[in-house]
């Protein structure tokens, strides 16, 4: 089918997700760090997270999720692979071409999107743009992370929060008025605060300094309290803008899908928006914060277990390092979702 006949709007056609099997409990962390199950649960809402075994990298998770999404969409002919990740296999080249090759998609467009926890929403906007421009009629958009590989073994805070996982969507060319059509995307950034979440070493800034990096500088660092305040403000504002673009009131939202940064952040944003808790989806208790994989993982699991139903008006919002944030809306379609767990 040609792009013109199919339409030029990105529409959700199938979802899949993959979690590495190893479950890490709060007590597992407390065995090595000065923390407790009580602190982690009450401050973050997290009870367990998945971490990869040694030797498993982001591409491995991305391939599994991508395969399931294509199976769900009954479509192995995607013509672009977009991978949102903070934890690429290597600094260079991008991880997406290797993922595409392992999915049998050699020759197709493939690139990474780097926007930390907002990466999936940036990926949605970029994928919709590929479809609108005619560069692609079917895009495989994957969010995949192995945060366990970048966490400082001595940092009790980040180790408590972040988990590994991957999830993917097939977006096909369709019409703006059909269920599953991605609404207008709201995106924003504030690089004035780039230091709030960062890995100091490994990039050109540290390398060109001529000063060897200290071991801890190779790990992910986060100023949690400051990030928390920005997250609530920015996600709320982006969500409100997205609702306005869709012509929806907060009361019209059947399901709010916030990035799973911290259960308290999601609850605070929902409260500010005026969305009742029963309409707010979450899975942070089981998987922690999986950054770019967080939103598609929650969408996949919720579509599979019935928390998301066809016809639901869905609001999605995310926020993360950069700082970067985004939001969008869609009406949930009749679609297959295949979570691995
Ligand atoms: O994904 C997008 C980007 N990330 C986020 O959006 C995360 C945003 N931030 C947060 O979720 C929260 O700020 C945290 C969960 C990181 C921290 O929670 P908090 O309620 O803001 O705690 P805090 O940083 O204000 O720290 C309170 C206390 C401190 O001790 P003192 O200074 O009061 O004695 C911390 O040292 O809690 C201590 N603490 C811990 N204690 C036990 C920090 N981490 C831990 C821990 N176990 N794991």
Automatic annotation (TrEMBL):
Cross-referenced Pfam families: ACP_syn_III, ACP_syn_III_C
Keyword DNA damage: no
Protein name, entry field: Beta-ketoacyl-[acyl-carrier-protein] synthase III
Domain Beta-ketoacyl-[acyl-carrier-protein] synthase III C-terminal: residue ranges: 243-332
Gene Ontology cellular-component terms listed: cytoplasm
Pathway the protein takes part in: Lipid metabolism; fatty acid biosynthesis
Keyword annotations: Acyltransferase, Cytoplasm, Fatty acid biosynthesis, Fatty acid metabolism, Lipid biosynthesis, Lipid metabolism, Multifunctional enzyme, Transferase
Domain (Beta-ketoacyl-[acyl-carrier-protein] synthase III N-terminal): residue spans on this chain: 111-191
Active-site residues (renumbered): 117, 259, 289
Subcellular location: Cytoplasm
Keyword Cytoplasm in annotation: yes
Function text: Catalyzes the condensation reaction of fatty acid synthesis by the addition to an acyl acceptor of two carbons from malonyl-ACP. Catalyzes the first condensation reaction which initiates fatty acid synthesis and may therefore play a role in governing the total rate of fatty acid production. Possesses both acetoacetyl-ACP synthase and acetyl transacylase activities. Its substrate specificity determines the biosynthesis of branched-chain and/or straight-chain of fatty acids.
Chief place where the protein resides: cytoplasm
EC number of this enzyme: 2.3.1.180
Top-level EC class as recorded in UniProt: transferase
GO molecular function: 3-oxoacyl-[acyl-carrier-protein] synthase activity; beta-ketoacyl-acyl-carrier-protein synthase III activity
SUBUNIT field: Homodimer.
Gene Ontology BP annotations: fatty acid biosynthetic process; secondary metabolite biosynthetic process
Region (ACP-binding) residue spans: 260-264
Recorded family membership: Belongs to the thiolase-like superfamily. FabH family.
InterPro entries the record matches: ACP_syn_III_C (IPR013747), ACP_syn_III_N (IPR013751), FabH (IPR004655), Thiolase-like (IPR016039)
Reaction(s) catalysed by this chain's protein: malonyl-[ACP] + acetyl-CoA + H(+) = 3-oxobutanoyl-[ACP] + CO2 + CoA
């Amino acid at each position: 089918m040609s792009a013109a006949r199919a339409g030029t709007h990105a529409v959700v056609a199938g979802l899949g997700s993959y979690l590495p099997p190893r479950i890490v409990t709060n007590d597992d962390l407390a065995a090595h760090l000065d923390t407790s199950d009580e602190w982690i649960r009450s401050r973050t809402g997290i009870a367990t997270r998945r971490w990869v075994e040694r030797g498993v990298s982001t591409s491995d998770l991305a391939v599994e999720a991508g395969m399931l999404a294509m199976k769900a969409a009954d479509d192995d002919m995607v013509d672009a692979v977009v991978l949102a990740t903070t934890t690429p296999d290597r600094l260079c080249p991008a991880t997406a071409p290797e993922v595409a090759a392992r999915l049998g998609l050699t020759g197709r467009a493939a690139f990474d999107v780097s926007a930390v926890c907002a990466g999936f929403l940036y990926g949605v906007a970029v994928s919709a743009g590929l479809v609108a421009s005619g560069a692609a009629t079917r895009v495989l958009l994957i969010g995949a992370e192995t945060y366990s590989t970048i966490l400082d073994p001595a940092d009790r805070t980040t180790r408590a929060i972040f988990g590994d996982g991957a999830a993917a969507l097939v977006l096909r060319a369709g019409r703006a008025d059909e269920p599953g059509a991605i609404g207008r995307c709201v995106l924003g950034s504030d690089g004035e605060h780039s230091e709030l979440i960062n890995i100091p070493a490994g990039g050109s800034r540290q390398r060109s300094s001529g000063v060897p990096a200290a071991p801890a500088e190779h790990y992910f660092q986060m100023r949690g309290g400051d990030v928390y305040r920005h997250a609530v403000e920015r996600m709320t504002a982006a969500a409100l803008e997205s609702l306005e673009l869709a012509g929806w009131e907060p009361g019209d939202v059947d399901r709010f899908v916030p990035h799973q940064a911290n259960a308290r952040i999601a609850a605070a944003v929902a409260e500010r928006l005026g969305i009742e808790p029963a309409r707010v989806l979450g899975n942070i208790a089981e998987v922690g914060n999986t950054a770019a994989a967080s939103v598609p993982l929650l969408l996949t699991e919720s579509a599979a277990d019935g928390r998301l139903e066809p016809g639901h008006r869905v609001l999605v919002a995310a926020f993360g390092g950069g700082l970067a944030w985004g939001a969008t809306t869609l009406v949930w379609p009749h679609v297959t979702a295949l979570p691995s767990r």
